[in-house]
């Protein structure tokens, strides 16, 4: 399967050499994880601006991703109301950007702990099906379980339903 990988690095001091080094690190990581695809490095003034640029430009010709996966914010380290509001606004802006770009958005909790291709996961994968999307999210979860890393896990589905549903 072809995949696209990208890294958003918010820094105004990146040089062409820094960008080349980052590209090589991401390519090496993809090779170690047995992921085939293209590496695209986006530089911007902020992470939010970088996400927007990435959603609009990722891909090669007609091969453009229709889904972006981001880490879900870790809320336990935040203890101030202003930080919570800022984090919420960033999340809302990300969701709005993905909707405007007509892209699906997967927000994964503990993305930094995502398993390597050699690991075997056990336990439960929770799927929060919030928007009726024709079953896309359920399909993603089902395909995830087909991979040997996730084959020993169970799916647990949570959904929000209205009285008319």
Topology:
Elements: E1 2-10, H1 16-32, E2 36-44, H2 47-57, E3 67-71, H3 81-100, E4 104-108, E5 122-129, H4 136-146, E6 152-159
Parallel strand pairs: 1-2, 3-4, 5-6
Main attributes of the structure:
disordered N terminus, alpha/beta, 6 strands, 36% helix, globular, 27% strand, two-stranded parallel sheet, 165 residues
Give me the secondary-structure category: alpha/beta
State Rg.
Answer: 17 Å
Total helices: the number is 4
State the strand order across the main sheet. Answer: 1-2
Approximate helicity band: 25-40%
Query: Largest sheet, described in full?
Result: 2 strands, parallel
What is the terminal-to-terminal distance? 36 Å
Topology order in helix (H) and strand (E) letters: EHEHEHEEHE
Protein architecture, described:
- With 165 residues, this protein is an alpha/beta fold.
- The chain is built from four helices and six strands.
- Strands 1-2 form a two-stranded parallel sheet. Strands 3-4 form a two-stranded parallel sheet.
- Strand 3, helix 3 and strand 4 (104-108) form a beta-alpha-beta unit.
- Helix 2 packs parallel to helix 3.
- The protein is globular.
């Amino acid at each position: 399967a072809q995949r696209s990988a990208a890294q958003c690095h918010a820094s105004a001091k990146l040089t062409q050499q820094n960008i080349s080094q980052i590209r090589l690190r991401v390519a090496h990581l993809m090779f170690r994880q047995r992921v085939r695809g293209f590496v695209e490095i986006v530089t911007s003034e902020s992470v939010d601006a970088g996400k927007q640029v990435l959603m609009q430009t990722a891909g090669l010709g007609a091969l453009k991703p229709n889904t972006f996966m981001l880490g879900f914010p870790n809320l336990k380290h935040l203890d101030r109301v202003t930080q919570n509001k800022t984090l919420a606004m960033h999340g809302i802006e990300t969701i709005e950007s993905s909707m405007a770009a007509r892209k699906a958005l997967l927000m994964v909790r503990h993305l930094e702990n995502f398993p390597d291709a050699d690991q075997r996961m056990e336990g439960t994968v929770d799927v929060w099906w919030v928007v009726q999307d024709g079953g896309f999210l359920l399909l993603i979860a089902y395909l995830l379980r087909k991979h040997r890393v996730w084959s020993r896990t169970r799916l647990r589905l949570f959904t929000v339903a209205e009285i008319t549903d």
